[in-house]
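Case 417 in the screening queue. Each case pairs one protein sequence with one candidate compound; here the compound is pyridoxal-5'-phosphate. For every case the pipeline is the same: read the inputs, emit a complex structure as tokens, and attach any notable structural observations.

Predict complex for case 417.
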Amino acid sequence: MSLMGSYKLKCPECGKYLDDLHQLKCGIHNGLLRAEYDAVRMNIKDTEGVFKFFDWLPVASVIETKAAPVVFMNEQMNRELGLKDLWIAFTGYYPERKAFALSCSFKEMEALPTMARMRDAKRGTIVVASAGNTGRAFAHTSNASGIGSLIVVPERSADRIWVPEDNGCAKLVTVKGDYADAIALSERISSSEGFVPEGGARNIARRDGMGTVMLESAITMKKIPDHYFQAVGSGTGAIAAWETSMRLIGDGRFGTGLPELHLSQNEPFAPMKDAWSGGRRNLTEEDTENAEKRISDVYADVLTNRKPPYSIAGGVFDAMTACGGVMYGITSEEAKDAEKFWMEHEHAVPDPAASVALASLMRAVKENRIKKNGIVLLNMTGGGQNLIPKGCMNRLSVSVALDPNMPDEELMRAIHE
Ligand SMILES: *Cc1c(COP(=O)(O)O)cnc(C)c1O
Ligand SMILES: [Zn+2]
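Case 417 output:
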């Protein structure tokens, strides 16, 4: 399909437009660069999947996919919660609700435009470090599109990287040690010839890919929500919700107000919640101290990012400041109760992170934190592993196992094999 998307890349700090669209930073400032699309109004393409939002994705080509966020209402759930206008955005595998993201999380909405954009740029093989959902989403997208990738994971997380078909496009690299070791090693690999780092929150394709949840919601609800609920690890999804809402305001058809952000983390490891509650722009050592121990006690470990883009210009703190809102520290017990409540109404088992978000909504209702007649959007960021057809969960075979202390030369030899 030949579609020519068009956008500029802008620094949020000096307002300068960058010449190189694949830059991750302005030459002077550290803030998150933003895409400014030529299309001012949201224009839906007549295709299946997330690329129907092509005009507001930073890509020049598409990947064929059926995966896109879906938005629906469950009236009985609303009655029990005492809410009139609660809408659920679901990303994962849930055919009954027309959700077909086989990797089972909204990371697939990031992976699809990111991989397409990487192919457009022709700069090398993408390197992704992950301990779970991100790696699985990229592995899946890589195999489905035929675009090569290197997925770097800590040894003990290798079993989370399953795909419908292991066709060799996505190569799995395991690293002795923890997530931090995997990140360090992926940085060494991606700084070498022929490889490109995936970019994380800095990559506009990841943020605008996640932003499609808000776009799909706007189509269904006809309006930007008053309240947006999401569980956050890096907060990239929340930044995307803010940025996408500004785009929707610019469109003119969906209202003029930003959504209040109701973001949640899983106690006892909730660094952004702690910083925000303390009125701080910066995370302190205290927010992340004893991380290992505290992380081992959370139910939703995708939410345990230790270095989220919180303080950075255009990051989570700025998003919360612009939109207003609340950060919740949710216990694992609350999350499990919320999961039980969800399963009384729906069939797709939620990702633990999505249960944290639902628990935060239940808490917000109890504490009267939302307008009675307001439009509420609950982002159920993942789920449906229980519904995946038999034979579609195959562990990606390990291409190479690495030691973080390997000298450069040996490392390069190993990954080029
Ligand atoms: C990654 C993830 C989150 C958190 O998203 P961030 O953008 O990192 O804040 C929430 N839910 C699920 C299922 C995820 O995989
Ligand atoms: Zn700048």
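Case 417 observations:
- The first helix runs from residue 75 to 81.
- The longest strand covers residues 260-266.
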